[in-house]
Amino acid sequence: MKLQKKVVTNKNLSKFNSLQISVKAKYYIECKTDSDIKEAFQFIKKNKIKFLILGEGTNVVFTKPFDGLIIKNLYKKEKKIYKNKVKVSSGYKWDRFVSFCIKNSLYGLENLSGIPGTVGAGPIQNIGAYGEEISNYIEHIEVFNFRTGNVETLNKINCNFDYRNSVFKKNKHLFIKNVFFKLKNKFIANNSYQDLKVYRFKKASELREIVLKIRNQKLENYLTKPNVGSFFKNPLIEKKDLKRLIAKEADIKFYKHNALIKVSAAWLIERCNLKGLQLNKARVSKKHSLVLINEDKKPNSILKLKNKIKTIVLTKYNIRLEEEPTIIL
User: How much is the mean pLDDT over the chain?
Assistant: First the structure.
């Protein structure tokens, strides 16, 4: 196979995923420009190989070497303000973008401060924290379609945003190029989340500071303790199933979510006495039971630990936990 100019082989991905799992990609390319994206497209089309678009790698779990092309998103072409609207390229770091918005008197994203990863990763997962979700502020998204080679625009409705979900989860051939946000000109604090209710915020920068402080207290830093943040989603159940659970556990932690009930995955894990559990070289964080810390260069430990947690919770509560990060099989 004749390699194109920017494609490299046998790339170790340990520095490109926050679990620091040491697997190799057969092929690897960094996409900083439109021409880089087109080069990646031509390489895939010519060689008929699978591919994976990778941002900061803070929400992926590699289970084995990747027998295809890793497309590293370093696309940072634009960051422009139009009144209360912002166009930003997907390769920018998310938290830096939140800070940029606050400094430019554009509000709404401050509750999402401190979330690792790129701007482009945000819509895929529909990231959310402390009573906000990114989808509340997205107007439309510009993508490069790796099946057709065309640039397309998806409006908010087309993105099918839901709890930790979007159209991009199943359509991994869509490379998010630019995200268009519609933000607020006036700061109105969202302190609806329990941890924020005790505060009265006059400025967005104050809210951001408290959110960063809470995150630092509750969550593990992936740079020193390799993790992907919350490993499991809060499961959604029917109201009739909640009655069954309340009969068993009167103090179960839950929230209303449209017509369904969102149960706290952290609560379920802790009630199963799994906080702090260690299995081989992976363990459940003592700070936050949804965070699984990995100290294994292979994926074995983290996969065994997450499977054990799922089995125990299913056995005790008949609730199937679903992984929040993308598991790369």
Answer: 96
